[in-house]
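Changelog-adjacent note: as of this version, every example in the card shows the full chain rather than a window. The one below runs 128 residues end to end.
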Amino acid sequence: MTGPPGTVYLLHFDEPVSDHARHYLGWASNLDARLEAHREGRGARLMEVCKERGIGWHVSRTWEGTRGRERAIKDRAESPRLCPDCTPSPRPVASGRSAAPRPEPKAPAPRAPEPAIEDPEPELEMEI
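Full-length structure tokens:
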């Protein structure tokens, strides 16, 4: 089950939190409320550490999606290559499990039946 649609977001830290942690990838049904929780150091241990150490951060990229899409993007394990702050031409998230689901193609509208073509010259009855 993937859950309701929301926003997958990538946070970029102004300085590394540890030897390798420079990003946080998350999902929210209400992004503004989730970012406020992060500012207060709630919701994720990594964001709590950022607050404790005074490390600034900002939203660097977002995608529309579900928790399932968040998991698929996390599984790619390539946040720096997805981050526009770290990579001048960040990788698209356009294929594989992490891609946004494509909308179902719309079925073509049913065609109206073509009108019967009338014979332009009606048959003439001949008298004998």
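Structural remarks: Residues 6-82 form one domain.
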